[in-house]
Design brief:
The complex is a heterodimer of chains A (331) and B (291). By secondary structure, chain A is of the alpha/beta class. Chain A has two domains: 171 residues, Rossmann fold, CATH 3.40.50.300; 87 residues, no CATH class. Chain A is built from eleven helices and twelve strands. Chain A has an eight-stranded mixed sheet, with helices on both faces. Chain A has a four-stranded antiparallel sheet with strand order 2-1-4-5, with helices on one face. Chain A is globular. The mean pLDDT of chain A is 89. With 291 residues, chain B is mostly helical. Chain B has one domain: MetI-like (MetI-like fold, Orthogonal Bundle), CATH 1.10.3720. The radius of gyration of chain B is 22 Å and the shape is globular. The relative contact order of chain B is 0.16. The mean pLDDT of chain B is 86. The chains are: A alpha/beta (331), B mainly alpha (291).
Amino acid sequence: MAPILEVRNLTRQFGKGRETVTAVDAISFAIEPGETVCLVGESGCGKSTTGRMVAGLLEATAGEVLFEGRNIRQLDRKAYQRYRQTVQIIHQDPYSSLNPTQTIRQILTAPLLRHRKVKNSAAAEARVLELLEIVDLTPASDVIAKYPHQLSGGQRQRVAVARALTVDPKFIVADEAVSMVDVSIRVSILTMLARLKREFDVTFLFITHDLALAKYFAWEGRITVMYLGRIVEDGPTQRLITDPRHPYTQALLSAVPEADPALAQHKRQIELRGAEIPSLLALPPGCSFHPRCPYMLPGQCDRTVPALEPVEVGGRVACPVRKQDAVSLLV
Amino acid sequence: MGSIQGVLSWLGTTLRLMSYNKAGFIGFLMTSAILLVCLLGPLWIPLDTTTKLDKIYQPPSAEHWMGTDHQGRDIFSQIVHGGKDVIYVAAVAALLSTLIAVTFGTVSAFAGGVTDSLIMGVTDVILTIPQFPLLAVLAAFVKLDNLTLLGLFLGVLSWPALLRAVRSQALSLKERDFVEAARALDLGTGHIVFRELVPNMMTYIVISFTLALTAAVYTQVGLVLLGLVPVSSSNWGVMISLAWTQGAIFFRDAMWRIMMPILAIALFQLSVITMTRSLELAFNPRLRTMA
């Protein structure tokens, strides 16, 4: 199947001259329709920047985002409209993603009318109520006349999801969509998103810093791990979780707490040589991870940037030293 | 909210919100009172134009609330008749400068690039021109006896500071996620500017409007006082100007004549500025739903 969205050598720099920061450094990946892809990494690794470029909200410094095989910056008016309605984004902070001066009705009606998804305002009203039901905001008739500040964080996030759904998207970038929501309602929002995935055939690019969350949400899909602007490893979730190849992925996984005390006791901790994340302003030469990596080979890792190469177990790994070696975290 | 009932309930809520701040509400009541007196007062109180030599420079009394001038005419009637023009010119000036500042400030912030540089360049140039001397020079070339024209002139020269403020507000709002979401939904620039950005700046815009109003009153009175604008009607500025040129500051008896228009202007400015406190409350959606 042709990928719904593809990214080629996508690069984004911020700042000028000596203060230039490369937030995203020539990353490439493709997402098939119906797939769920999780972008995982520490804060500052470029995952949100990637998400915003994929959603067409931030221009790339170099490289391209392809929608149905065509660069999104070179689409004609009609194709661009289709792209805009196909790809939507859900922001992290539900407190700044809803306009405080508009009621929920106004927030949801505007895109419906703008894109002629409904015939008239009566039909819009009905559709808004329906959308609120879809995102489990019930009773919808109670919510519709409210202002965002009258809703809780979780409810606001549901409104943000409903707003994305107004244009019947097929691809949703969920940028840390549950990380600012109370832990107690996180699961219910994740379940709701998973239901949308099934019922409306939505492809998800799920951006998170929480590997446990990625594992839960994209169990049938793929995980892409980013470190300081580069992809270090990607692959089917189940392979990546049980058989991580890149030392950074291994370190991330060993840091995920296990609920089962028996497992927790036997879990192997990857011993990093340092905990400090290098500054994006002064990236170490070669592999960005080498100052912390326990398997660092002097003369190789600190000289050349490792290429992201396919591995036979599935996916790609950017570590020539360790890509062949399976490491069991549970001994 | 198309029905009369809806409008009434909106007005009721607005008034209730404005009354939360006592000082602001008093300012609002005083502003309304001054406006009423200046707009409707002339219908009831005739302008006293008869010279009464036996009543020159009288202090305030039951008969003449604000005393009399150098020809024994009632000052109160002149004050009542003299407010309309001052307020009209100030309103025209403030409306025009707010309109220019909000429109171009938002466009400048939102468009960025060449448009932004161009608008900011023009703004900086106008900001550096000393307003008052320019108006004085202009007054020599253009016959500024038309009130609307005078208001437009004042407005055209007084928007740059507000434009810069609106632009910086819009710049910070533009980065907010809800604006990005509107872009992702392709809602269009018009929607983003007038539905997303401007409503969030409303408090600020309204307050800036009142400040522009007070500034326009001062500039206008200043121009009249210096005799640069030949406004013939009796207005507060002309009253001060006449009293001044006839040496009112040298006679103790003439104090009421020169003080009354000054007090009228000061009271109007004070009322408007105090009212802004209540306006802040009226334009806050958070408070509106609580009420």
